[in-house]
Specification:
Layout (H helix, E strand, L loop, with lengths): L3 H6 L8 H7 L2 E3 L1 H6 L6 E4 H8 L3 H6 L5 H18 L5 E8 L10 E11 L5 E6 L5
Parallel strand pairs: 2-5
Antiparallel strand pairs: 1-2, 3-4, 4-5
Length: about 140
C-alpha cells in the first residue's frame, strides 16, 4: 500500500545521500576537528566553503600571507560555535567571520558570510552543514 504522497507524486526517482556527497567530495567531513571546537554532532562543509575559506597551500603562502588550513577551519568552526550559542533554537544560522580571501593577492581579512543548517542526516540523525549563503 502506498501513502498519499507517493500516490500523488509517484515513487522517488533518485536520492543523493550525505554519505555520497562526502565520498564524491561535494561535502568535506570536518567532524573530528569540530568535536574539538565543542560540536557533538557530525559537521561538514560544502566544497565551495572549503575551497574559498579553508583550503590554503604553500603557493597561497608565497603569494599572499602565511596561513594554514587547520587554523582557517578552526576559525570557521569557532565562529559557528559562538553563533550556535546565541541562537540555540534555530536550525538555520547565518554568521560572519573575517577571512583572508584566497584570491592570489589579499593580505588582509575581509568579512564573509556563511550559513549553517542542522537537519536530519541519512539515517535521520542530526547533522550540521556549513555553506555559502546562496547554497542549499
Amino acid at each position: 500500500m502506498m501513502d498519499r504522497t507517493t500516490d500523488f507524486f509517484g515513487g522517488m526517482i533518485y536520492a543523493y545521500s550525505r554519505a555520497q556527497a562526502i565520498e564524491d567530495g561535494e561535502l568535506v567531513d570536518v567532524s573530528d576537528i569540530a568535536k574539538r571546537s565543542g560540536f557533538k554532532i557530525p559537521v561538514a562543509v560544502t566544497r565551495a566553503v572549503w575551497d574559498q575559506y579553508i583550503e590554503w597551500t604553500d603557493t597561497d603562502n608565497d603569494r599572499q600571507t602565511i596561513q594554514d588550513k587547520s587554523g582557517r577551519l578552526c576559525d570557521v568552526l569557532w565562529m559557528l560555535y559562538l553563533a550556535c550559542k546565541r541562537n540555540k533554537e534555530e536550525s538555520y544560522i547565518n554568521y560572519e567571520l573575517h577571512v583572508i580571501p584566497r584570491d592570489g593577492s589579499s593580505k588582509s581579512p575581509t568579512l564573509v558570510k556563511l550559513k549553517s543548517v542542522i537537519c536530519g542526516g541519512d539515517e535521520g540523525e542530526p547533522v550540521i552543514t556549513i555553506m555559502l549563503p546562496n547554497e542549499d
